[in-house]
Amino acid sequence: MGFDVSTLALYLWVLVATVRAGVIRLSDEHEDEMPCRTYTVNGLQYLDCSYRGLNDLPAGIDYDAQVLLLSNNNFITFPTSLKNFTRVEVLDLSGNHLSRPLPSYLQEWTTLSTLNLSNNNYDTWVSDGQRYTIKRLDLSKNKINSIEDDAFKGMSRLHFLDLSENRIYDLPPQVFAEAENLDSLYLCRNYLSDVPRFQSHSMRVLTLSSCQITNIDVNSLAGMTSLLEIDLSINQIETIPDNLASNTLQELDLSFNSISSLSDRTFSSLPHLAVLDLRGNEFRDVWSTSHFSSNPFLREVRVKGNRWSCEGFSVNLLLTYEFLTKEPPKITDQGSLICYSPSNVTQLSWQQAYIRTWHPNEATTESYTTIAVMIGIIIGIVITSFVCRGLVMINRPDPPRAAAETTVLNLNGTIPESRVDSVVMRVPLREEDLPPSYDEALLMPRLNSSFHSLPDFVDEDEEPARQYRRSRSIGDLMESRPRAGDRRSVRRTVEIHIT
Ligand SMILES: *[C@@H]1O[C@H](CO)[C@@H](O)[C@H](O)[C@H]1NC(C)=O
Ligand SMILES: *[C@@H]1O[C@H](CO)[C@@H](O)[C@H](O)[C@H]1NC(C)=O
Ligand SMILES: *[C@@H]1O[C@H](CO)[C@@H](O)[C@H](O)[C@H]1NC(C)=O
Known about the structure:
Layout: H1 2-33, E1 37-41, E2 44-48, E3 67-69, E4 90-92, E5 114-116, E6 124-125, E7 136-138, E8 146-147, E9 160-162, E10 184-186, E11 205-207, E12 229-231, E13 251-253, E14 275-277, E15 300-302, E16 308-309, H2 316-325, E17 339-341, H3 350-358, H4 365-395, H5 400-411, H6 417-426, H7 438-443, H8 454-460, H9 464-470, H10 474-477, H11 487-498
Parallel strand pairs: 2-3, 3-4, 4-5, 5-7, 6-8, 7-9, 9-10, 10-11, 11-12, 12-13, 13-14, 14-15, 16-17
Antiparallel strand pairs: 1-2
Helix pairs in contact: 2-3, 5-6, 6-8
The protein binds 2-acetamido-2-deoxy-beta-D-glucopyranose (3 copies).
């Protein structure tokens, strides 16, 4: 009992200590919260007012900050004293409730290069005819559904634009034409049904992942004269138009769509294609190497997650396999070049399926070894069975002839005890002497004595006719009743006499 109390006291002490430590830590955090924090990293002066629940900026802050972090507050409009800053380079207003156009004084911030308005309430983005020096603009996670034609006209330095996770159904092709330095555009998770036919001489990276795109127009890339990479993954594209053209495109990501076939003209107008991602599509027929004859710079192809059919076992399997895997390999994961059907080659590589079908004799030494082992095992089994059979013959107590003599002797009623067992054993070995049928078995008397009682019983029994029946089953030995009409019994009796 005393032990229990002290254990309880210990637990209580630990509990109190834990709670107190927690309280101390909480109050530490609280102290930290009051004014915005200022610090310097890499020579840049930071003012961090993020996560403060602010509606406006507090008074008495340092307006010399170069990196102004105001994210995750409650700003509905741009805070009034924001205009007191003069040399901000990075303005992070993500995670607020902003929805109005940029304040005009931002034009005068000639140092401003990054503006983060991610996760706010914008539902439209309009042009106000002003010019900004912004290079990186993050408008992701808003509710933008319409963008004016000249919305980015005043952002001639814009290099990176993120419009992911908005509600954009359509974009005017000219919208980025005058953002003449726009390099990377992110439009993931919108509701575009077509690849937009943007006009841009600067755009190099376009990301259109998870946009519910079903259609690629043959000219969709033509207006982007510098495009290097396009990400069209996780859409609902079923076909790539023949002669989809771009003189610059190097990386084409079409993974996780519903594409089922390629033709010799699919990539024929993409002369600089180097990286092709076609994972997770619905390809079944193994491609022909001719599909890639216009793509001399192709260096990486991703194909995992397609259910290849090797049906037909044409030499194409081998050629395409070699095209994709020969040094330097274009496939990083060779395990992806495997047959899904037909069932006799499931899980085999394209190469193995072809070789095993058409050149089974060229199978690897491995299969020879397997065959040799199998033959060895079979021979072993045969020899063992012969040896066993030989041993059984040697150990058999009486050859058939001796048994016949025994029977004759037995009929005369002058048998030695040991020979009776021989008779009993020999008869069931005869071909005609099948075990009793079920019906016959039902007619038989029940066995209620052990086999050991047999010799004694035989001694007592003087009737020769009954002894033959005895050999039929142990049950008979206990039964003195004759079994009239038993054909099998009669046949056996006759047979023994012959023997
Ligand atoms: C900040 O701007 C407000 C007006 O927006 C002005 O009244 C105030 O004096 C400015 N503060 C400083 C320190 O310049
Ligand atoms: C904008 O802020 C969000 C979250 O605060 C962050 O994930 C994102 O990377 C930022 N964007 C840029 C361009 O820095
Ligand atoms: C698999 O079955 C096809 C018939 O569907 C046959 O042509 C081919 O030779 C078989 N391949 C192997 C490796 O057994």
